[in-house]
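The material for today's practical consists of a large collection of protein records. Getting from the letters to the tokens is the skill we practise here. To make this concrete, we reproduce a full record directly below:
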Amino acid sequence: MSSKNKFGFGPLDTTGPVSRRSRSVGPMGAAVREAADSLQETTEAKVEQRRLNARDAKEFREAAEQGRVLQALALSEISTDELPRDRLELEAVAVSAEMDELKASIRERGQKEPIEVFLGANGGYQLKKGWRRFTALSQLLEETGDAQFETILARVDRAEDDRITRYIDMVEENVVREDLTFAEMAQVVIAAAQDDQVDGSDPDALVGRLYASLHKMKRSYIRSFVYLLTTLGDALQWPKDISRNLGAEVARALKSGQGDVAALRQSLANCANRDAQAVVLAGFVSGAKSVGTTKTIKSEPKEKFEFHVGELKVTARNGECRIVGRVDFAGVPKDQLERAIRAFNAALDE
């Protein structure tokens, strides 16, 4: 019988090496596979990118809501009328040498510190911090017309804070920098007490809320100036120039009912300059101390007070008035010094 089958070939030889057909990918298959791998990588990259974008967007919204994002706002978009300023004599500050220095710095180096604004009752931007920077840029725009001064870097506070919190935020920066006088800090308290949107109108309590971070002694001085400013009102033409000790002494005398308050107001209203105001206040304190003095008071150590007239430091106590300054008094001609002393004595006699 033939070993071949009807198809004409015999049994396969399985004893030798088995040859296998090549399974290598052809050009078309390679292209298809490469395109599929690329599509998968692209899809994964897009998914990751979308995830990162969503996270960044969320973080940006949170930062914007918390006021940590700086924005370039047009000066015309910002108003300053909703929150009283924490500075007195704003017109004088606006034309001061310090304002000129700030304008020169911004002109040369640009705005380095942002201002802070909040959304007012009408939805517009209201200034909270940075009145000097805002004023400097406004003046530069008016003076030069340069478009670079039309915008200002600002931090937008979108939190729905209550009124008292905004007062605290306004004064916080200058208080930390010790840039406010006691009269200015007291004026903020008075403005807050008169603000219908502030809960509570007791000035003493508001001092504690507005200046909680300050030492209790400083808060005591602020309360003294609050009493001083509310009692004397507009008769004080230069409240910023009243020294801490003199202001506290005058307030103490007023609280104790000593001296003629009406006469004091009249004298202050007639003052021609800051130095004259200091002299009037010092005279009031001196006169108040002499009224109703008892033997018990006389037996106590002598009290004194100090104030400045220009660059001169004046220390006054019972029977003594000491003037210290950079002037070489020994080099002043005798007749000139004598005229000054006579004028001083004549002023005291008035």
User: Anything to note?
Assistant: The longest strand covers residues 151-157.
